[in-house]
């Protein structure tokens, strides 16, 4: 029910904005398509766009792919660097519906490797984290992630660092 109210609220907001302006209202998916096209045409990296926005590369990439929400200022900076208009700026400010763009299990080989890692090492991570912190979870809200290249004689390595606040289970 809450999701339906959110969708209706966003629809009303879109309708009001469109009635007051000549800005074309587009979906997050349409915005992502425009963003990725402009990014490719301008030969920009996520890091270059992140530098313009003033945020981390991984977070900016996730927002541009529809999984996080930008402020008006962040959206303006991103769109200015990409040469995109207010329609994309507005779409980047709509609250993201996270986790809906990926089918499960994932079929993309790179994304599937992360799924596979969690299937294999998930119970291990849970056991080690709970041994260290107690019963609880790692937040995906109060969270950051970094991707780095690590030189290695047998071929460069991908280093993914995830950091989330520990949330213990509440007792009542």
The total number of structural domains is 2
Per CATH, the architecture of the largest domain is: Orthogonal Bundle
Give me the number of helical elements.
7
Give the class from helix and strand content and strand pairing.
alpha+beta
| CATH C-level category of the largest domain | Mainly Alpha
SSE string: HHHHHHHEE
Q: What is the end-to-end distance?
A: 27 Å
| Cα Rg | 19 Å
Instruction: Supply the CATH superfamily name of the largest domain.
Output: lambda repressor-like DNA-binding domains
Helix content: 40-55%
Based on CA inertia axes, which overall geometry fits? globular
The total count of strands amounts to 2
Low-confidence stretches: none
CATH topological fold name of the largest domain: 434 Repressor (Amino-terminal Domain)
Order of strands across the widest beta sheet? 1-2
Instruction: Please state roughly what percent of the residues sit in beta strands, choosing from under 5%, 5-15%, 15-25%, 25-35%, 35-45% or over 45%.
Output: 15-25%
The main pleated sheet reads as: 2 strands, antiparallel
Care to describe what's here?
The chain has 172 residues and is of the alpha+beta class. It has 2 domains: 26-93, lambda repressor-like DNA-binding domains (434 Repressor (Amino-terminal Domain)), CATH 1.10.260.40; 109-168, Cyanate lyase, C-terminal domain (Cyanate Lyase, Chain: A, domain 2), CATH 3.30.1160.10. Helix content is 55%, strand content 16%. The chain has a two-stranded antiparallel sheet with strand order 1-2. Helix 3 packs across helix 4 and helix 3 (46-53) crosses helix 5 (72-82).
């Amino acid at each position: 029910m809450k999701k339906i109210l959110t969708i209706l609220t966003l629809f009303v907001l879109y309708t009001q904005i469109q009635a007051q302006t000549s800005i074309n209202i587009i979906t997050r998916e349409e915005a992502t398509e425009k963003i990725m096209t402009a990014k490719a045409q301008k030969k920009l990296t996520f890091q270059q766009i992140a530098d313009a926005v003033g945020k981390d590369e991984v977070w900016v990439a996730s927002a541009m792919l529809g999984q996080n929400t930008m402020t008006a200022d962040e959206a303006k900076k991103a769109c200015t660097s990409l040469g995109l208009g207010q329609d994309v700026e507005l779409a980047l400010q709509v609250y993201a519906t996270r986790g809906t763009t990926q089918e499960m299990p994932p079929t993309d080989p790179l994304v599937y490797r992360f799924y596979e890692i969690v299937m294999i090492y998930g119970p291990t991570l849970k056991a080690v984290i709970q041994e260290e912190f107690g019963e609880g979870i790692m937040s995906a809200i109060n969270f950051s992630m970094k991707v780095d290249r690590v030189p290695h004689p047998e071929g460069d390595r991908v280093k993914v660092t995830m950091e989330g606040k520990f949330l213990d289970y509440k007792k009542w």
